[in-house]
Amino acid sequence: MLDINFIRQNLDLVKKSTTEKGYKNIDIDAMLKVDDERKALLKDVEDLRKERNETAAKMKGGKPSDELIKRGKEIKEKLAVEEKKLEELENTLKATLKSVPNIIFEDVPLGGEECSVEIKKWGEPKKSGVDHLDYATNRGWLDFERGAKVAGAKFYYLKGDLALIENALLQFGIKKVTEHGFTYMTVPDMVSSRVLEGCGFNPRTSDQSDEYYIEGEDLAMIATAEMPITGYHMDEIIDEKDLPKFYAGYSACFRKEAGAYGKYTRGLFRVHQFNKLEMYAFCLPEQSKEIHEKILGIEEEIWQEIGIPYHIINIAAGDLGAPAAKKYDLEYWSPVNQKYQELTSCSNCTDFQARAVNCRVRRKDGTVEFVHTLNGTAISLARTMVALIENYATEDGRFIVPEVLKPYLGGKDEL
How far is CA 259 from the centre of its chain? Predict the structure, then answer.
């Protein structure tokens, strides 16, 4: 979340970012009025508490006067009313603050999804490819029918060589991120509401909530390892000398895919459960822009070594989530659909998430401030398998193993 004082000092910027990100029902001015009321009431409450303590002190050491007793009761009753009002105002303010998205950087394109800007291309796009769903189903590698029977639509079984390819991709991804200094970790597949809210995954509308909640528990299934890693240093103060910290979290990811109407959904491209290796960084504020480029560079390195053409786009404000100040998407070339399709992303969330989960840094001079957090997909395994089959499967039914995956598939040239 944003700091209320930052909002006051940068009111026009916050209003612009909120509007450009598509959050049109947030009244910043009304929120500031609530904060003004809260401040005024807080002063009254603090004055009453002070008087209550002074009155209690006077009552000690002898029989208090009737007037003093009467005043003590009046203060107690009034304080109970005022404290309740204060709590309500604080809850209202907190809820509104949670709904205000992060500000955008100056170099973020304005407008909706169609206004995102291509900044780089790599590789030579193929003119034709093999449909992954038909190919994998015909080879007995993928079973959506039994997945639906067991868990519902858009759940699936991976079998045989495709399951081994997924494992090979994971092993390759782990090798790459650890070479770049990321600590590999497995993470909880559920998080509490505090962590979920701290990540800032606030949908623009009520029908876009993407999480599966556990009934009767303060828990939700994670949509990405970003969520539990965001909470890893919750309520902690990290020494400046220990930053930046780099983590790579492997997890299953669960998504309702609410709000996905009209988007590409065939086969493995958009499913309710998939596995993913996620990069994450906690860093000093002055480091975050450089680290954002570092994470993007690792993503590019992974896809260049796999050998699949892609381009990089600077995501427009209207397509940014609440936490991100800036986001890059890496989209692979789909020879089947003859267009670029989303594959990985990396975001700079500045101090937006850290403030919500209370993760701070103690500087060498003793001062304390909030860290910056960043995240980026190393490998989203379901979509990566779509891209692999489209680019490496042949019309005669063979699958040519990419060079970098051969060590994890017994050295085989094809499957």
Answer: 17
Q: Which CATH code, of 1.10.287.180, 2.160.20.10, 3.40.190.10, 1.10.287.40, is assigned to 27-99?
A: 1.10.287.40
Choice among 37, 51, 342, 369 that is catalytic? 342
The contacts found for 25-33 with CB under 8 angstroms, 24 or more apart, are 26/96, 26/99, 26/100, 28/100, 30/96, 31/7, 31/93, 31/96, 31/97, 31/100, 32/7, 32/8
Fold type of domain 113-408: BirA Bifunctional Protein; domain 2 (3.30.930)
Catalytic residue among 38, 197, 226, 255: 255
Choosing from 270, 278, 331, 390, which is the catalytic residue?
A: 270
pLDDT at residue 59, as a whole number: 86
Among the listed residues 251, 345, 347, 380, the single catalytic one is 345
Residue-wise pLDDT tens digits, 163-197: 999 999 999 999 999 999 999 999 999 999 999 99
Half-sphere exposure of 280 (CA within 13 A, CB side): 28
Report how far residue 35's alpha carbon sits from residue 89's, in angstroms, rounded to the nearest whole number: 8
Domain boundaries, the chain: 27-99, 113-408
- Residue 63 confidence class, pLDDT cut points 50, 70, 90: confident
Q: Which of 161, 138, 112 is nearest to 412 (CA)?
A: 161
Q: Please give the Cα distance from 10 to 244 (Å, whole number).
A: 28
Rounded to a whole number, what is the distance in angstroms from the first to the last CA of the chain? 49
User: Catalytic: 342?
Assistant: yes
Q: How far apart are CA 315 and CA 111, in angstroms?
A: 10
- Residues with Cβ within 8 Å of residue 66, at least 6 apart in sequence: none
Per the annotation, the verdict on 380 as an active-site residue is no
**pLDDT of res. 203:** 58
